[in-house]
Structures are given as structure tokens and as C-alpha cells.
Amino acid sequence: MDGAASITKTIIVDQKGSGNFTTIQAAVYSIPDGNQQWIQIFVKRGVYREKVSISNSKSFIVLQGEGTTKTSIEWDDHGDTMNCATFIVHANDFIARDIAFVNSFKQPSGGPYVVAEAALVGGDRNSFHRCSFIGYQDTLCDYHGRHFYEECWIEGAIDFIFGFAQSMYTSCVLNSVGQGWLIANAKVNESFATGFVFKYCTIQASSKTYLGRAWNNWSTVLFYKTFMPDNIEPQGWDAWRSSPNQHQTTFAEESCLGPGSDKSKRVSWLKYPSEEQLSNFVKVKFIGPDNWLSQRP
């Protein structure tokens, strides 16, 4: 998205040595704390075997790859929800484009499966464009803040998009590679500003899967004009931690497509938002009235 802002500096990362740095983390460290101008870290093609963390003191970074099949960050940590992710961002005003985030941890055959995140996204006004997130359990920790994902590939099997964030996913592919649940939103009370909206997305699934399950009593997820394959579980949703208060959740599906979108056997507590409620979900203002997306470089 083009906006009024501009990139003031570009730092080049090339593991072959022709850039400013050979690792992404070194490039991140080079940006001064309290930075207020957009700086691009351009990552040349290659598999970068490192964990990358962007602290809350390093805002206004654009992480730019050469495409998800050419530029990837890969690591294989597991177990610690807050620290095992291959990529962690806590800074506000962050953008990633055309790069893959991969957790290559080999889950035990047949389980028990463990947390092994590809990314933890915890800053406000964070956006991802044409990125991939690859894992199995808890692939994308959509932790806190307002986030936008556009044309991204998100792959896993168990709660592979989860967290407390307020996020919109547009034209993304959710690729389920095992039996489980796509989404686990963690809204903790009625007024807490969180929820996940999926617009114009495509679900792919190799085996039976639920659309999502309720991490907390007020879990909020909407699928809008999204394609659902035939191996979506007919009931669609799992009460999980909200039981016996699952009526407080907001799980909704509107104008979805494909054989898995049949709502005739869905859970009795599926919500049917009014036209006004639906508008509040599907418009960009869902992730903030301050129009932050249009102000990006």
C-alpha cells in the first residue's frame, strides 16, 4: 500500500558478504533505539539460519525479502511460547514483505505435539505482505496489537493462528497439514479489543479440521467470503476452554464458498451478525480508525 511515508535508508543483508551485514539480526541491532524514520532491511535471497528478534525500541522497520521461495528465516526451537519463535517482533510500526518465516522443528511422529512457532507478532500497527509462515503447532502467534496480513501463506495443523491480537487477514491461504484446528483466538472479556477477521481467504486441508476453537470465553473469529474445502468438520467450531459459556463467543461465517461452507450442521452457538455488525468487522476500521495502513511506505 502506497502512503505518504517514505523509506529514508536501506540496509542490505547478504549472507554471501556483498551487503552491509551477513545476518538479519546484526542489521536489526544497527538501527538506533527510538528510531522514528522508516528504514528498510533488504534481505537478499538465501536461507538465513538464525532467530531474529526486533525489540520494542526499534520501530519503523521494513523487512524486505526477494520472495518467499527465495528468502527465508529458519530455525527449529520449540516449547517456550514467548521465546521459541523463529521471528519475534515487539516493535510498533513494522512491515514485512516477500519473506518466509519457518520453524523447522520435527514434531514427534504421532505426537504429543509441542509449541513450535514460526513467528510471534506483538507490536502495534504491524503488517505482513506476501509472506509465508510455516510450522505445525502454533505456527503464528498473533500475540498483541493491531495487525494486517495480505496475500500470506500460513501453514500448520494445531491452533496455527492464535493469540490476543486484533487482526485482519486478506486474500491469505490457510494450509492445514494435519487434523486439528485452524484458529484459537484468546479474547478474555467482552470489551477487550481483539478478534481475527479472514476476508477473501482460501482454506486448504489435507485431513479433517475444525475452523477454530475458543481459547477464552469471548473468542472472536469471522470468516468472510472465504473458500472452505469439504474436509472442514461439519460442526465447524470447538467450544474448548469456553465451555459451558460458549454462547459468549463470536464465531461467524458470512458469504463463504466451497463444500465446507455448509452451515446446516454447525454448532448451535454460531453467530449470525447483523449488517451493521458485519460492516464493523470487514472494513479496515476493524483494526483501527486512525487509518494507519494508508500511511505506510
Entry summary:
This protein has 297 residues and is mainly beta. The chain has a domain at 77-105 and 112-288: 3 Solenoid (Pectate Lyase C-like).
Assigned CATH superfamily of the domain at 77-105 and 112-288: Single-stranded right-handed beta-helix, Pectin lyase-like
Corresponding CATH architecture of the domain at 77-105 and 112-288: 3 Solenoid
CATH class of the domain at 77-105 and 112-288: Mainly Beta
Assign the CATH topology of the domain at 77-105 and 112-288: Pectate Lyase C-like
Would you identify the regions where 5 or more consecutive residues have pLDDT less than 50? none
Sheet with the most strands, sense and barrel status: 13 strands, parallel
Radius of gyration: 19 Å
Let me know the average pLDDT: 97
Task: Throw out a few tags for this protein.
297 residues; 23 strands; Pectate Lyase C-like; 10-stranded parallel sheet; single chain; mainly beta; 13-stranded parallel sheet
Explain how this protein is built:
With 297 residues, the chain is mostly beta strands. The protein has a domain at 77-105 and 112-288: Pectate Lyase C-like (3 Solenoid). It is built from 2 helices and 23 strands. The chain has helices at residues 24-30, 275-282; strands at 9-13, 39-43, 46-49, 52-54, 61-64, 71-75, 87-89, 94-97, 100-103, 119-121, 126-129, 132-134, 140-142, 146-150, 153-163, 166-170, 173-185, 195-199, 202-205, 209-213, 220-224, 237-238, 250-254. Strands 3, 4, 6, 7, 9, 10, 12, 13, 15, 17, 19, 20 and 22 form a 13-stranded parallel beta sheet that branches. It has a 10-stranded parallel beta sheet with strand order 1-2-5-8-11-14-16-18-21-23, with helices on both faces. The termini are close together. The relative contact order is 0.10.
